[in-house]
Structures are given as structure tokens and as C-alpha cells.
Write a structure and sequence with these properties.
alpha+beta, Deoxyribonuclease I, Chain A, 2 domains, six-stranded mixed beta sheet, about 35% helix
Amino acid sequence: MNSRHRTKVTQLCALMLLVCVLGCALLTTFAECERLYWLAYLVAQFRVELFAISFLTAAIIFATSRSKILFTVSILCAIVNFSHLISYYMPHPNGQSKTKLRLLQMNLNVKNHEYEKVTAYIQEVNADTVLIEELTPEWREYFSKHLRQYPHSTTVEQIDTYGIGVYNKTPFENARVEYFGMARHPSIVATLSGLEKPVTLLHTHVQGPVKEPFFAWHEEQMKLMVPAINKLPRPIVLSGDMNANAWTYLLSDLVSKTDLVDTQKGRGIHLSWPAPFYWRNWPFQLLSIDHYFVSKDISVSKRELGKSIFSDHYPVILEFGLKQ
């Protein structure tokens, strides 16, 4: 490689680093304004990616002894984004419980027709309760014939992506369907047995905020669920595809105003969407949008992602009991 070619490569690398630094700075600043504009709220969903890119850029700049200003800006962007994530990696007290329930949450995806493989996975996990999103009439019909070990269910099947269902091995009480806001997406409230006292379950699927009118529905549902949750008897589990990461302001406000705990705390961030190479051939997960939140009298012993069910979401498994 001659000196002229080397100079062009060096200039190109310097330009790429400059673009990365400016991009991270602009997007991080924009994300900090998430309460002001819906597009900023979307950008704030990508704190993990912004942290990773900012930190990697800072490391490259440091290793190549380039601009101190660019290094400082990059590392500041990394720090700002990680400040929203650090609580997930700090120790979190759990307490002890005598008995446990296991929940399996699955967003099936309306385009998924792997009926036998999904059912086999449900049987493999052997959860006490199976929580379904994107339940279509076809899936409802199949489950009615092939999930014999879950004879008790409450479902609202739909041809769009907002059908929902709760399947249980044992009878549950007070099961009903609730609707929060103009989107009219169904949620299910039920009382689960099997522990020292009944547990209230609210299983939901929040509108995706990818367009401004959809964001309005998303915001409305998040806000309307707050007083509804506060009226429900404790202990309580809130589950579902929230189409938001827990560090963004609407979901963070919901959790704090209902005095719930994110079950990811102390376990790291579980990126559940999209499953690699399912969504537009994307190679890795981006967002943690499939959630369990619990009241403080619940002790969580396990929270983990399941294996691929041929959906764009990974299933999420939760084991919990009541604190002694």
C-alpha cells in the first residue's frame, strides 16, 4: 500500500469515527428528550445499542490516540446511556419462598404456523400458566385440541396481532377481559392459586408506538393501566409485550406509580426481540419488550429467556413465590 492510499484509508477511518461520535451525541441528546416528543421516545428504546456503539467508538479512539475531544464526547455518551441501564446489573434482594409458580410468556406471532413445535415447547417447559400474545383463531383452535394439560383458559382470539390468552393447569378465579383506551386491545385479569395466598395476574399487550397515532394509543394504555393496577389486590404479576423497554419514561412511570418491581433487576437485561434472522434477517436482539413486573411481596427465583419458538419474540419464563 503506497503512502497516498494509506492517507486516504486513514482519512476515511477518521471520518467514520467522527460520524459515529456525532451520531451517538445527537441520538443520546435526542433520547434524553423522550418526554417531549414521540420520536425521541422511540430513540430512547435503543439505550443498549447507543451505549455499545459509544463505548466501542471511545475505545477505538483511545487505542489509536486520536482526538481527546472525540474520546470525551464518546465516553460521555456511553456513561449517559449506561446510567439508564446500570440498575439491571446491581444486586437485588429477592427473599425466600416455600412454594413456587412457573409462568411461560409467549408472543406467537400471527405469521407463525409451527403449531406442533410450539406446543411441544410448552409441554417441555411445563409451566403452571401459559401467557399468550398474538393469539389467532387458528392458534386458539389448535390449542383447544392439543393443550389438554391446560384445561382452564380465558382467551380473546383476533386476526390482528393483539389476540391474547391465559392457559392454566388448575382453575383460576375472577377471570375477565379488560380494555384500556381507544386502541381496544384486550388484556386479561385473573386470580392464580397454588401459593400461600392468591396472586392477581394482569396479562396485556400494549400498542406498538411506531407511528404518531399509534404512540397516542400506546401512551394512553400505559397511563390508564396505572389506576387499574393500583385497584387490584396484591400480590400481583403484570406480564405482557409492552412494546417498550422498562427504562423509557412511560413504562418506568407505570412501574414506579404502581410500586412494582422489574424482574430483570439484578439479572441483567434480557433482550427478547427480534429473534435473530426472523425480522428482516437482523442478526441479533435489540429490545427488551416482553416483561414481568411483580409486587414487592413476591420473591423471584428465576427469570430467563426461552428458546426460539419460530416467532420474532423469544419466550420468557418466570418462577416466583411469596416472600416469607
